[in-house]
Amino acid sequence: MLVLILALLLSDQETVSAMGRIKPSRGDFAISELSAEKKEKFLDEHNKFRGMVDPPAADMEYLFWDENLANLAQMWSNQCVWDHGFVEFGDEYPNDVPFKRVGQNLARNGELLTTRSQRREVVP
């Protein structure tokens, strides 16, 4: 199972991965094709675990789905680079994004899920 984790970067520092600075162009653009049910499941699980931090956070915000971020994560995962990837935006990027930089990780779970019901528990 692949898990994409997105994090907004609020720093003005130059961001560089092992591949160097990465700026998406129109040709790199990808569409995330997760169903509405899977999006809801991912968010519900993620927000559930965020709510379980101990000690409790005073201002823990509820996460919501962002199609632009999902598409950027899809673009990164399509490259199959097992590294922390940073993306900077330029005028050539086709979507209207309200931030300068984002970062994402491509990860996988090595657990063997042998039955259909076990697999459904992870990704319905």
From TrEMBL:
Residues 37-124 form the SCP domain. InterPro entries: CAP_dom, CAP_sf. Gene3D superfamilies: CAP. Keywords: Signal. Coiled coil: none annotated. Residues 1-18 form the signal peptide. SMART domains: SCP. This is Peptidase inhibitor. It comes from Desmophyllum pertusum.
